[in-house]
Amino acid sequence: xxxxxxxxxxxxxxxxxxxxxxxxxxxxxxxxxxxxxxxxxxxxxxxxxxxxxxxxxxxxxxxxxxxxxxxxxxxxxxxxxxxxxxxxxxxxxxxxxxxxxxxxxxxxxxxxxxxxxxxxxxxxxxxxxxxxxxxxxxxxxxxxxxxxxxxxxxxxxxxxxxxxxxxxxxxxxxxxxxxxxxxxxxxxxxxxxxxxxxxxxxxxxxxxxxxxxxxxxxxxxxxxxxxxxxxxxxxxxxxxxxxxxxxxxxxxxxxxxxxxxxxxxxxxxxxxxxxxxxxxxxxxxxxxxxxxxxxxxxxxxxxxxxxxxxxxxxxxxxxxxxxxxxxxxxxxxxxxxxxxxxxxxxxxxxxxxxxxxxxxxxxxxxxxxxxxxxxxxxxxxxxxxxxxxxxxxxxxxxxxxxxxxxxxxxxxxxxxxxxxxxxxxxxxxxxxxxxxxxxxxxxxxxxxxxxxxxxxxxxxxxxxxxxxxxxxxxxxxxxxxxxxxxxxxxxxxxxxxxxxxxxxxxxxxxxxxxxxxxxxxxxxxxxxxxxxxxxxxxxxxxxxxxxxxxxxxxxxxxxxxxxxxxxxxxxxxxxxxxxxxxxxxxxxxxxxxxxxxxxxxxxxxxxxxxxxxxxxxxxxxxxxxxxxxxxxxxxxxxxxxxxxxxxxxxxxxxxxxxxxxxxxxxxxxxxxxxxxxxxxxxxxxxxxxxxxxxxxxxxxxxxxxxxxxxxxxxxxxxxxxxxxxxxxxxxxxxxxxxxxxxxxxxxxxxxxxxxxxxxxxxxxxxxxxxxxxxxxxxxxxxxxxxxxxxxxxxxxxx
Amino acid sequence: xxxxxxxxxxxxxxxxxxxxxxxxxxxxxxxxxxxxxxxxxxxxxxxxxxxxxxxxxxxxxxxxxxxxxxxxxxxxxxxxxxxxxxxxxxxxxxxxxxxxxxxxxxxxxxxxxxxxxxxxxxxxxxxxxxxxxxxxxxxxxxxxxxxxxxxxxxxxxxxxxxxxxxxxxxxxxx
Amino acid sequence: xxxxxxxxxxxxxxxxxxxxxxxxxxxxxxxxxxxxxxxxxxxxxxxxxxxxxxxxxxxxxxxxxxxxxxxxxxxxxxxxxxxxxxxxxxxxxxxxxxxxxxxxxxxxxxxxxxxxxxxxxxxxxxxxxxxxxxxxxxxxxxxxxxxxxxxxxxxxxxxxxxxxxxxxxxxxxxxxxxxxxxxxxxxxxxxxxxxxxxxxxxxxxxxxxxxxxxxxxxxxxxxxxxxxx
Lengths: 798, 174, 229
What we know:
The structure holds three protein chains of three kinds. Chain A is about 50% helix and about 15% strand. In chain A, the strands form four sheets. In chain A, strands 11, 12, 13, 14, 15, 16, 17, 18, 19, 20 and 21 form an eleven-stranded mixed beta sheet that branches. In chain A, strands 1, 2, 3, 4, 5, 6 and 7 form a seven-stranded mixed beta sheet that branches. Chain B is mainly α. Chain B folds into two domains: about 80 residues, Winged helix-like DNA-binding domain superfamily/Winged helix DNA-binding domain (Arc Repressor Mutant, subunit A, Orthogonal Bundle), CATH 1.10.10.10; about 90 residues. A three-stranded antiparallel beta sheet of chain B has the order 1-3-2. The longest helix of chain B has 26 residues. Chain C is an alpha/beta fold. The longest helix of chain C has 17 residues. Chains A and C meet through helix 12 and helix 20 of A and helix 1, helix 2, strand 6 and helix 3 of C. Chain B: InterPro entries: Tscrpt_reg_PadR_N, WH-like_DNA-bd_sf, WH_DNA-bd_sf. Chain B: It comes from Streptomyces spiralis. Chain B: Pfam families: PadR. Chain B: This is PadR family transcriptional regulator.
């Protein structure tokens, strides 16, 4: 009988060899049908997959929308620009005088403008329909809300204008931006070429020239995208495998009724496809929800309007095609190690120990791709984008390849401990692969984020200038517009709550010739006016009485002080800006000059020149002074900074109060770092959610066992702890590995841009901290269901 | 199966003629083997002699079928004791048990009690057999197992019957 | 009502409802030290609920349960858990062995829950496995042993703490008759030699025949068959 070939097998073999496209379609369709008709269990599985894929898709869409959002923001910002550095122009029917009255409140920036239209055709700022009358203001919705609330009490005092309207969306760069335009009178004399100006239009003076992209910046952007999208991909891969074991059992049943193994695989792929298609729909919904939500949140002073977040159509289409395709591929790949037999599922992969060598090849390959670019930096031309992306990808994929091996080999060696520990370790030993798979996403996200933060922190040094400010002596500085009487203003600060010390100095430039356009003076020096006490902050004075005049020397910028300070000599004050613009103002060097020695002043510089006590300064001098009040502030007084700002605003609306910091960060990098951190946290939260889902699924499957364990007196604490260990061990290993890979990648990237290599521990700690937080959150959230499952009702089955 | 106890039980619901007794017996328990008149007479005379029944009255005419019997106090007690005593667990006793059940239902006694009593007796027997089996050799084990499986079958029948007692009551008292 | 004199565990007037279903409706129970009592009854009669109440896993809605002179129903969950850990043992039909622990680790688990050191616990576990003739399976995982072997491992685990009371819920329910009887023989022998009382819930008469006494539960009411004979 066996000699005769069975006629039935021959055509089957032929079919198997080359499944036709209709057959593929039929099997995929069948799988999709199973996914939706699988009863409650099937629905739950479909839903889990769809939510997972949906979250991933939403994140992808959001990521693709970020460039456009930033572009729109940038455009809005450009459109409302008031260019104050232009040439002075005469008052006309189409001019507007605008003054920059920015302030900040409780750490948030407030964009403020004083406006005075000078004719019927004065340019209208974006988002406005007209200008408020003097004493009135139009505000952004967020500012209105703040001023109306109790939190805004101090700001209300600072902005004593009547609110007559709100600024439209086109005039704002974010839903939470604080901004106002206040009507003002008599602004024209305040025109100074930088803070206040007469303008005829809003917007960039010349079409903003696209800056040739800084290769380092480009590198940063490329890596940020790879770093954020990799974990999403890992996450989607994990999501289509939700409930895989139950699916395998169903497939075994299919084999029993006669489908061959290839068909079974295609049917499984069809199930995944259905899940990911529903996931696409979910993702779109999540994205739209997230977009609305994005309008209501503010992250580190950056908020956007939902309308900004429009993914580029091409990228959105790519997502729509790539995600389902990836789902099918991942499923086929996952089933590679599984033999589905009619009577059950046999896992062929389990007995084989994981091998290290090919897993190591991936990160090493990544390093090899990046290595040639080491030292190219900003000076030696640009980086090869493909090598950068490829290298970073390989390194990060290397994490996902290495982690299962690490988890397996570490867990196999984990030994004694309490019962909770034993339960967790044994469970991990039995299924280290699935544990590692769940953690992969977190590991990749953390590795990428650490590397990025390191790179940014390193590069930031190049973009960070030391301001030289000495925050021990002075904590705040108020710059007074030219012409504001210095001494009365200083008085007001003395009585302001929270102020310890007031140093008021007014400065002007003195030269040997008139300050006329085109004719630069030959010699110039600085003139500083202040009380004896204030002057002692910039120079060592032998003795001081009001009326004294000093020549201070010995500093870096003495200028031509000694040359110019000859008794009786007539010197010219710089009047190229300000109320006396263009008029010549002179000051005669008095007969009696005292000598003084320059010391390091409050701004950290040592500048000498002529020092005048108030009585020595005549009205001419006072009119040209630019005053600065340096304040020592008692930070323990609540809202001390706000009181100072309020006093500044009361002295003059255009007075600018600034908080001192010892360094000034390049804001560009601060926002990238913040964005990266926020993105990484979001990705981690997403992965935490999927961890939770699979944790709960696992707990449900073990309901009977849990009840039995409770029956013989297992403490809840023991089981809860074992759940904690079960999550914590793989995540701890994942964080270790990802820290190592992240630091390596960070070092390589830093070397690539030629920056000093230093480990940015705060970011390593904060990223691993967030990872650890995810473990804790997952454990805590799975405790209530665990305790519920541990109730004896679980025994009451069958 | 005790015909005497059965007939006594049938009399509990009220005095009957001998002929009525036979008909009632045949209808409820006879099935394929109706009672002979002779069996009725001889049984009744034995019961009469033992004081479990009395002659309630004689109708005109001759012959034992004219006698009307009634149960005595002693007769009721006798039925009671019989119903409460479990049968020795042995094969094919369901006909006796069935008779007892029907009689109990007819006389409004607790039929479930009869089943439970029998069940307890069966299980006691099974315990003895199980014990012997544990201590005995293979031959003992095989013999005991045979008996155990039969007893188990009976026990299953008892359980099933207990679950269907309400339906049986309906059928019998209709 | 006080517990019958000399009883180890006694319950009186137990009532328990799960939503609309009444699982127990005034059930009674008592067991003496070293006694094996079978609890029988049709499925859904409440026999498992009775076992859960007696073992302090479930608190009855009303009624009293005294174990060794102590009232179980007023104990806190922690106290009852401690009691179950130290004084009671459990064998269920299935799903009770932790699949990722080896057999000997499973048997040692109750001892370890009581704080015994791992080595010592596993030594004791191995001794019990020897008595139940499954010591050769010590290093295997539950998934690699047969149903009968698994149940014997479970019995070893139930007895490893030397409990005074063993609760067995359909311990042979998933086994064929030969394996089932072997498990019952070993279980009752081991329990008797350790002087542990056994509450044996079963619907099989031949399993119940290993007991000293039988209780039948019907519609949430219990019936002590001993008093009928």
